[in-house]
Every structure is written in structure tokens, then in C-alpha cells.
Amino acid sequence: MRRILLSTAKILISAALLYLALRKVDLTELFSRFTATSLFWIAMAIAITFLQIFVGVLRWREVSAACGAPLELARAMRYNVIGAFFNQTLPSAIGGDAVRLWLVARAGAGWRAATYSIFVDRAIGLVALAIVIVASLPWSYELITDPHGRSALLLVDFAALAGGLGFLIFGALKWPWLKTWWATHHIHACAVIANRVIFNVRRGPIIAILSLLVHVLAVVIAWCVVQAIAAPVSFAQVFLLVPPVMLITLMPISIAGWGVREATMGLAFGFAGLAANEGVNISLLFGAVSFIVGAFGGLVWILSAEKAAQGSAQLGVPE
Fold it and tell me: pTM value?
């Protein structure tokens, strides 16, 4: 019952925020801006989304190996594409993580290793996103002149950065009592693995590059959407505005981020002195691209060995 109520609340939040955001949009005018060139840019956005998933797969494999859950490249890519589908269908922006966890655990890696690999991968991605936003703050402050917008940007970003750095510091602690409590034991274990991966001489630079590339590709996807509707927004503006919006969208309070993303993008564009409706337009098409990729992931799920073997014996994970 609690899960049903939570899902219902998220649906209502998505619907309410979408309603408020769409009040700023003239859908007829938006569709009138579509041309043959628009289809090319949307196709580019879809292709780059798959590339972003692949880059995420490369990082996840590095993390999974450190967690004792090694994955073949093809299997990891299939799991991530399937996760993209469930991101669009489950009542959360991170629903795909739960499905990836289930797939890895069911494949024979075990629940602990599977959970650690997903949790650490997500934490590293969050830290990288916060670092990208902090590094761009001098330029963001030039773009966002509204004091409320500046305050919101600082609050959200430094909260994420503090959480991420606190997580890494937690892993460096050696207090014995951390291993006696169930919650602290597992969180500490994840933090230890995160430190081991990030500060590893071989893995660390690879993880850093892949993590930054994932977020840069999100900006490029948004830029392709901008080009598709010929929105009067520069690449630099997209680069400064999209990462904070993506950070806020990670909050699991809506369906696949719908509503939260549109409302936040509209606010961000308004704070930057740009047309709020253009922010909502870009967000809607960004979400549409994710939905199309998720639909492909649904097809992969339907045809996958995991779906066919549902309820039967475990599928082995290669050592």
C-alpha cells in the first residue's frame, strides 16, 4: 500500500509540474518549427544518447569489477539499455538502477556485489556532476543575474558536492564501530570501494574521464534538441544550464523526471534572462529523445534472455 501511495504521489507531482510548465508552451508554434532538418538533429540526439549509455557502461564495468561483479561489455550494455526503458516506466528517475541491480544479482553476482556496483557507480556520477557545476560557477554567475537563481544554484550544487565528498571521507574513516551497524557497514563498504576506484592509479583517470564525458554528452544531446527547433540559445548557455537541471532531476519525486525537468528548465532559463518557454520546449524534446531510447530498451528487454528465463535458473556471470 505504501508503494502504491508513493507511486501515486509521484504521478501527481509529474502531472502537476508538467501542467504548470506546459502553460508556458504553445505546442502549435513548437510543432510548426519542425522541418526535415529537425529530424536529422533528433536522430543525432538519439544516437548520442546511445553513446552516452555506452560511456556509462564503460564506467560501470570498472566499478563492477572492483565490487566483485565483473560484466561482459555486451551484457553490461544490454542491462543499461534495459535500464533506460525502466527509467521511463517506473515511478522514479532512477528506476533503471533498481532493474540493473536485479539483473546483475540474478545473473549470479549476488545482491551485495550488485547493490554495491550500482550504488558506487551512481555516487561517482553524482560527484562528477557536482564538480562540473562548481567548475563552471564563474561563468554561471555571469549568465544568471537573478539573486534567487544564484542562491538556488549554490544551494543545490554545494549540497550535492558536500554529500559526495562526505561519502568519500566516510570511506576513509577507520572506526571499528562503523562495521557493527548494518547501515553504516554497507555504506562504509561502498565508500571504501569508491575511494579505491577513484584514487586507483590505473582506474582513477579512466573513471574521471568517463564520468565527465557522460555529463558533457548530456549537454550535447540538449544542444541537438536546440538545433532541432532552432531555439535562440548558444552552446555555452546550454552547457551552463543543463547540468544543474540534470542534478535536480535526479531527485526521485516524479516519473522519469517528467515535470521536474520541465519546471526546472523553465526556471533556469528565466533566471538566465532567456525565454522560459524555450527551456520547457527543449526539456520536452530532451525527454522525448529519452523516451524513444527507452522504447528501444523495452524491445531489448522483451527479446532478452533475462526476460525469457524469468523465474528459472540463474544466468551465469563470467569471471
Answer: 0.86
